[in-house]
Write a structure and sequence with these properties.
Blueprint lengths: L15 H7 L19 H17 L51 E3 L4 E6 L4 E14 L1 E4 L2 E4 L5 E5 L6 E5 L9 H12 L5 H9 L6 E6 L4 H7 L18 H7 L3 E3 L10 H16 L6 E5 L6 H13 L5 E5 L12 E7 L16 E4 L9 H12 L8 E4 L7 H13 L3 E6 L11 H5 L9 H6 L28 E6 L11 H17 L19 E4 L4 E4 L9 H5 L3 E6 L12 E2 L7 E12 L4 E5 L4 H4 L4 E4 L6 H5 L75
Parallel strand pairs: 10-14, 10-15, 11-14, 15-16, 18-20, 18-23
Antiparallel strand pairs: 1-2, 2-8, 3-6, 3-7, 3-8, 3-9, 4-5, 4-7, 11-12, 12-13, 17-22, 19-21, 19-23, 21-22
Helix pairs in contact: 3-4, 5-13, 7-8, 9-10
Amino acid sequence: MADSVSPVRRNPGRSTWVRARKARPPLMLSRRSRHRLRALRWCGRRRLRRRVLQTQAAGADWSEGACPGPRAEAPQRPKAAAPSPAPRPVPGPLPAPAPSGPVSLPIPPVRAAGPGRVLLLLPADQGFTFSGVCRMTCLYGQVEVLGFVISQGQPAHDIFSAYTHSYLTINAVRYSMPEKSKKEIKREARACLRAHLNLEDRSWATGNFSPLCSIVLLEHVKTTTINFIASHPGLSTIFVQEEASQVTSECLVLGSVGIKREKRKRGLQLTESTLVALEELVSVSCEDSDGCPIVLVCGGQDVGKSTFNRYLINQLLNSISCVDYLECDLGQTEFTPPGCISLLNITEPVLGPPYTHQRTPQKMVYYGKLSCKNSFENYIDIIKYVFSAYKREAPLIINTMGWVSEEGLQLLIDLIRLLSPSHVVQFSSPKSKHMPPLTPDYVADRDGLYTKSKSRLRSQGFCLPEFSDSVEFADEEKDSPVLFAEHKLLSVFSEFSFRKTPRNRDSHNRIFRDLTVLAYLAQLLPPVPKPLSPLHGLTPYQVPFNAIALRITHSDVAPTHILYAVNGSWLGLCRILDDIRGYSRGPILLAQTPICDCVGFGVCRGIDMEKRLYHILTPVPPEELRSVNCLLVGAISIPQCVFKSQHGLEGTIPYITMDYNFKLPGASEKIGVRDSEKEQLPKGKLHPRSKFFRKMKFLKGKDHSSQPGGSGEGGAGDA
């Protein structure tokens, strides 16, 4: 029989738990009673993290590498006489005591470095996901944001992590370390921080510094675009983050900059197929010696095409100086207001949604509508015209529409044959419509809207050419042989999730378009720190009637109502080759919509009928305006908040009416319909698309807008 182990009697006044408490580190984070030692669960780790932050805010020494010394034993209190406790069972084996060495923080530590400044330490392979707007400077090491790598010594970059899109993450990048000791590395980091931080902040940073750690400075930033968008009701919360449910010292520190930490899963997540496609495209763009690759990105709606394009642009800019971008999506443009087909040369990283990086295109045509339905040929002709400006000096990224069914798929096949891309990136998603793989064989065997398949051309006796520089779609050449260039198909499976659903997609897209238009109008205002000025307080340009031609691109409007449609509308400022001089009075009306260069956009603030002048607000510089001789009015409208939030006006607001006449040509919701059905609004209700026909109080002389009449969205009917 085995020897039985007799229980060991212990002094009730000195239990095992007292000795275990003495082995704990001396840092006291609270006066709460100590619990039995055990492995910390998630709630315990969360409490420990909160106490660490509170101790940091109180100024306690919590630097990495600080070894706490032995804690002085507290004097024992006199024990009161008490009866002997009842015998209790022997406790089980004791857990290992807590380590007395430095405690590594489970999150990247942050520290306030002055008013509106935060110091962030990012260990290797860790990220910081946030919402809000800030200006980021990499003080030491390397970090990556949306594919763009920022190293120490580079200028600061503004980062826009708005809730309308996926939140951005600042990721620490592993960088090569020379053969140096830890002391030498810290001395080098301290030298890099000397120009940006004071002695106390430098000591904190170097005390928490570890090998391959990156040090980032986040600063509060305000731009004219942010201030102008946030000044409109309902849009102020796009950049201002909601308060956290539990306010901690970290929330207060980050809130001083205007950002808030978010969960990593709420940031941008790229699938494995996306990373493989990005790696191959970057490799081809950097190593291709025969010519610059042309990448066409296609797929359904809301599958992540635009996000992929931004990431690809940023990754290419890490290796090359510029990237060309051809915008063929009319409804959701990236660098220009909606309704445009444009070619841009991108030299700066794209670190935010489209309404935060409006750029000046190299060549642009104002199409004037959000969809190319019922006018495919004009859409193709404009793409050919804009694509002709591509010089093949940099890689080209082509963004296409999300319409990939029926005629949209045939149109996409025409674009592939016309533009001859070297790579086609096709997105698929469980929530999007099924789309057949656009392999070279599939494209060659299918008819487009204006081109025929290879098999049909062979049956008609055509000999296929081996090479052609371009493809022309003239009327007499639609049945002629075309080039079937081989491209490489990269299939990307997207798990991109967003708030959009088929039910609310239109409203979301309309909000994004309004934000883009507001961002363009913000260029009219003076830069910060000057205060914002209302648009009706700015001085417009005066343009004579006989110096410029007019055209409504999307609707059939009677000539007698053209000026009603132009007044208060979004205008494309274009230049045509026709000579319009020689007209004495005007206005000059064009019979057809020309394919011409668009130099920018403006707003017709009013029309002076006595002096026969257009009053136009535009941020286009005067040297560019000298060549403008045509105004195009399309279906793109000015956001309603611009008209409704005109501060400083009393009484009736200009361009707002409740007496909307649907009988006027161009006022119906159907394009070109002149005899619309009678439609009435409830008494006292504002029509959602009417903006005009009240006498403007901020113009001198008689105003043409004082007469009732006009049209729908954009002042010229509705698309």
